[in-house]
Amino acid sequence: MKSPFSAKTVQPDISLSVCGYRKVLDIISSKWTALVIYAMEDGIIRYGEIRRRIEGISKKMLTQTLRQLERDGLVKRVITPSVPPIVEYSLTRLGESLLEPMRALNKWTKEHYSLVEQARAAYDQGNNEE
């Protein structure tokens, strides 16, 4: 039986244009996207509070990120007419469904990223000796 991981594959079996996983990574791979989703994990939150919670995010990046998440169906925006208008954000059910895999990735990072850093340092040290 031929292994699906065989190096002798004649036709490409991994496609950038078809891979659903890659498409999801395109949505959540921005550092700001992940942080904005984490900022909303406890429920409804206002724009200013999101901005205060996320170190280093500019108004422009926060606005772009929220618009993209809203477009992707992950975030709901509610505007309450007042002076000034009150704008609140929350995760949709779809957005909430991303929390579990993102938490798993966060857990993996906490448990293993130091090993990645060690591997990088060893690799860089080995390549600098040439």
UniProtKB/TrEMBL annotation:
Residues 19-117 form the HTH hxlR-type domain. The keyword Oxidoreductase does not apply. One of its GO terms (molecular function) is DNA binding. Pfam families: HxlR. Keywords: DNA-binding, Transcription, Transcription regulation. The keyword Transcription regulation applies. This is DNA-binding HxlR family transcriptional regulator. It comes from Paenibacillus forsythiae.
